[in-house]
Design a protein that fits this description.
Catalyzes the condensation of iminoaspartate with dihydroxyacetone phosphate to form quinolinate. This protein is of the alpha/beta class. It folds into three domains: about 100 residues, Rossmann fold (3-Layer(aba) Sandwich), CATH 3.40.50.10800; about 80 residues, 3-Layer(aba) Sandwich (Rossmann fold); about 80 residues, Rossmann fold, CATH 3.40.50. Helix 12 links the parallel strand 11 and strand 12. Helix 1 packs parallel to helix 13 and helix 3 packs parallel to helix 4. It binds 1,3-dihydroxyacetonephosphate (13P) and iron/sulfur cluster.
């Protein structure tokens, strides 16, 4: 921590000068999560928080689609991305043309796009979802068939939770969560049988089937706080365990995790530069703001 303290102090000073709030995803490094964030959370919590920001500037400590979502929900604010290259394999998996292809294949079926998408894809969708509310949203939609994009694994996991719907999906995946295998988890259980296995729903369904609990990043935090397992394996991004370990000294966090290379592009150094130089403000094409916002707001209304 000593090496981070000068950055944390400088950033917190600049935040006050600029009138900025830092919205940080649960996958940020501990020095960002604990040192400079005003709000931490999963994608849904950060989207809701963005609608409530009064300050003129938002610094999005997360990936690009999260900054776009904040801008869409609160277009009057300056939303800064400390590194514009912080993308997401899911957001890059689908385009508005891909949505049109799915609509042509499944006429009349509603399109649910994960928030991990560009503003253009949100604008072409009927409603968004996050990992925290995907099953709830799919269950609430009219008709027998629901199109889910772009995460095939989230869609397959939701299909199991909502058997009354025919869920069809686009062929996208998260490069962090697709790397876990069911065999990894079986081997781990054989080696350390007293471990509680907790997975994110972007993992393949056979991985989810091996887990004791599956949920969004905030769902994972709540589960650990509630159940206080003696040993926990978080089948997700590595910073999750680091960020909550101090709050749960009685829980031993064990096992492998995967790093998200995009989330890890956001560093204290880049946040400091971002606030100093007011770069880089995220812009969303004017014609996309209203339809993209409608898709996100429908989701927020349905998940209340
Ligand atoms: P959550 O909404 O669960 O935080 O997930 C976002 C994400 O990018 C996970 O990979
Ligand atoms: Fe995208 Fe996966 Fe990284 Fe989340 S963890 S930002 S879904 S690549």
């Amino acid at each position: 921590w000593a090496m981070h303290a000068p950055y944390v102090q400088a950033i917190n000073r600049l935040k006050a000068e600029r009138g900025a709030v830092v919205l940080a995803h649960n996958y940020m490094t501990p020095e960002i999560y604990h040192g400079i964030a005003d709000v931490v959370g999963d994608s849904l919590q950060l989207a809701i928080a963005a609608t409530r920001v009064d300050a003129p500037v938002i610094v999005q400590c997360g990936v690009h689609f999260m900054a776009e979502t904040s801008k869409i929900l609160n277009p009057g604010k300056t939303v800064l991305m400390p590194d514009m290259a912080a993308g997401c394999s899911l957001a890059e998996a689908i385009t508005p043309e891909g949505i049109a292809v799915m609509r042509a294949r499944y006429p009349g079926a509603p399109v649910v796009s994960y928030v991990n998408t560009t503003a253009a894809v949100k604008a072409a969708s009927d409603i968004c979802c996050t990992s925290a509310n995907a099953a709830q949203i799919v269950r609430a939609l009219p008709g027998d068939t629901v199109i889910m994009t772009p995460d095939k694994y989230l869609a397959q996991n939701v299909a199991r939770q909502v058997p009354e719907k025919r869920v069809v999906w686009w062929d996208g995946a998260c490069i962090v969560h697709e790397r876990f295998t069911a065999q990894d988890l079986r081997d781990f259980r054989a080696f350390q049988p007293d471990t509680t296995i907790i997975a994110h729903p972007e993992c393949p369904p056979d991985v989810v089937a091996e887990a004791d609990y599956t949920g969004s990043t905030s769902g994972i935090i709540d589960f650990v706080a509630r159940e206080r397992p003696a040993k926990a394996l978080l089948v997700t991004e590595c910073s999750m365990a680091s960020n909550i370990a101090d709050a749960h000294p009685a829980v031993e966090f064990v096992g492998p995790c995967n790093m998200c290379p995009y989330m890890k592009m956001i560093t204290l150094e880049k946040v400091l530069w971002s606030l100093h130089s007011m770069t880089t403000p995220v812009e969303v094409a004017a014609e996309l703001v209203a339809p993209a916002r409608a898709a996100v707001e429908r989701m927020i209304a349905l998940s209340a």
